[in-house]
Give the backbone structure.
Amino acid sequence: MNAAQPPMRLGVFGGAFDPPHVAHVALVQTAIAQLGLDAVRVLPTGQAWHKPRLLSPAADRLRMAQLAFEDLPQVLVDEREIQRQGPSYTVETLRELQAQFPQAQLYLLLGDDQRRSLPSWHQIDEIGRIAIICAAGRDMAVRAWNEKSGTSQTPTPLSDTLQARIRTLEMPLMPHSATDIRALAATEQALTGLVPPAVERYIHEHHLYRPH
């Protein structure tokens, strides 16, 4: 690598993507534009240690993620967390990517819901050491959380050191919910404007989220 060449900027965006929706795509588009990312790895979760419910089959979530981001040439949907045995932790993924791309600066991309849960993440301080954490605007996230929960509380604070590593992505509040989308799909309702058109077709063609 030429010493004068700046390091690669690599975005990392993980999630259940059950299903991926337009807010996921908007967040990645915003991150590419505002952070000048060269590439983004989108990683559907494998065995989610923090999810109380059983996720849809990995093959379906992987395909939907590929369809959702297919128009963004910087994005590669990465299967490593799906293929990993046992609980899947973000810190392990970041370490693998750091080893694979030693000259890259990693940017961990988060939605507002993920940002609020950061204090409970496995080895969160190590995550903050490896990657720059980039999340949707804090004020918008707090407001959305308060409206949903009916409280005036704020998320659990992070350490000052970790907080200093977090960058804010300026984007409109998009209160899209995969839970609500699954509920609509269960009754075969249209998902127009909630998920990318190709994802909506996939959901209906494969009868996802229908009651057994």
The longest strand covers residues 9-15.
